Amino acid sequence: MSCFRTSCPTVLGAPRFEQVRTFKQWLLPNFHKFVSRYAETMWYAGCYNKVDRSELSDEVSVLKTYSTAVEVLQYTNSYGSLLEVGALSHQLV
């Protein structure tokens, strides 16, 4: 997280309304597209019956993206957006 703080000081140091607007208009829609694309790929690939290396790397990417989004939203106290990320991640289950 400290690496993220140094690479994105503009978002983390912005006023609250700017942070919320950025998360609602940029982060959440992009996260939703990413999760939807992954869930669709897993559904069509039949990942639940067989697992190969590329599907495992996709799963790692989703987990890293989810973890980063949760950390950023927690750091900025954006708990409403954090709940939305949690709801979007249930698409994978």
Features:
mainly alpha, 80% helix, 93 residues, 0% strand, globular
Low-confidence stretches: none
Q: What structural category do the secondary elements indicate?
A: mainly alpha
Strand content: under 5%
DSSP E strands, number: 0
The run of helices and strands is: HHHHH
| Share in helix | over 70%
Average pLDDT for all residues: 79
Assign an overall shape: globular
Biggest sheet layout: none
Radius of gyration: 15 Å
End-to-end distance: 27 Å
Provide a descriptive summary of the structure in words.
The chain is mostly helical. The protein has a domain at 48-93. 80% of the residues lie in helices and 0% in strands. It has five helices and no strands. Helix 3 (16-45) runs antiparallel to helix 4 (53-75) and helix 3 (16-45) packs parallel to helix 5 (79-89). The chain is globular and about 40 Å long. The relative contact order is 0.16.
Please provide a brief summary of the model.
The chain has helices spanning 2-7, 9-12, 16-45, 53-75, 79-89. It is mainly α and 93 residues long. The radius of gyration is 15 Å and the shape is globular.
Topology diagram in text:
Layout: H1 2-7, H2 9-12, H3 16-45, H4 53-75, H5 79-89
Helix pairs in contact: 3-4, 3-5, 4-5
